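Complex record, two chains
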Amino acid sequence: MVRGDLSDMRPLSLAFACSLLAVAAHAQSATPGGMPPPPGMSLAQSAAMRFPQPVRVGSLIGRDVLRPVESQDVLGRVRRVIRDQNGQIMVVVDFGGFLGFGSRPIAVPVDAMVLLGRDMEIVALTPDQLRQFPTFSPAGATDVPDDTMIKVGLAKPSH
Amino acid sequence: MRSPFRPGVVPDAAVLDDHRPLIRSLERRSLIRGGFSLGALVMLTGCDVRRPEAVESALLAISRFNDTVQAWLFDPNKLAPTYPASMILRPPKFNAYYDVTQVKPVNGNSWRLEVSGLVSDKRSWTLSDLQALPQTSIVIKHICVEGWSYIGGWTGVPLRVFLERVGADLRAKYVAFKTADDYPSSIDMASALHPQTLLALQYGGETLADPFGFPMRLRMAVKLGYKNPKWVTAIEVTNSYTGGYWESLGFPWFAGI
């Protein structure tokens, strides 16, 4: 006797099965997002591969900065966007800490970061590397005005 | 003491291992995964979980049943919420079944939109042909099955206008899409004719950028994000089910919101 098709199912088990399936979906990735740049490639080159899009600097302030892993750990939050002594655009991130306490500002090259919807992600540096970064010092840095448009690369979500 | 409710003969626990890929593909939260116990599987399949194909066909039958219910619940005149233009996220969020570095931009000058199936005019369309049709702008929420969302502003040709223009049989069941990134998709005719379903050409008042589907993508307010193919190259009006990329991997086809 052929069993297991829908007609065999009693109404109660059908309803239960439907309730399971109603919420059961997950757009898993065929390829992961936010992979680090290939070895030997400069940050600028790797950022260029991520289809940089114009974004208003003021809209970046306060965004969560995530780690490109499935759990999307929050590494910190964007505090300001600056131009350093060399003219490089850097994103100052309140890094580390716990529940907002104990974090310290570090300056991350914008080309090491991507836009992920309303969040940002650091794709080219590991948390261990970021921990070695010196605490940001405002000397020699100038703030990039809020209404400036800069270009930042993209990535797909890492989950 | 042995539970009085425990059946005398229990199925082999290896059944769960046999279906691990399928269960993982359906999970959303580990809580739900936890709910997918052996007992639930037994209920799904009328107590014969020893046959893997029985489990899979039961799960897919339920998914199709859900599609039918959703299609029945769908109100073609009910509009999805819209938002002020100030809430548009610029740029929008990128997503695909591959990362952004694999995006292959489409040349808008040589791009053509093929039209086939149950239509009276099968001539192909250029980008400027589409730009010459009446345009509509909407600010709607993009809701992904993964759990995230953002508000986006889209401008383009209502699919209904396009289908009427090509003389499509509006009683047909499906409108199917092919794309430059090999991401086939298809939707029901009622959703295709919904006023918030666009062949989108612009985002935030500017030409669509390459990663978001230039020159043309589908953008609809009444379905989940994965029902919005980018870089559309062909539209077919048909009565044959053609499915889609994620649908062939077990995702629900109707995917209404």
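Note: Chain B is about 25% helix and 20% strand.
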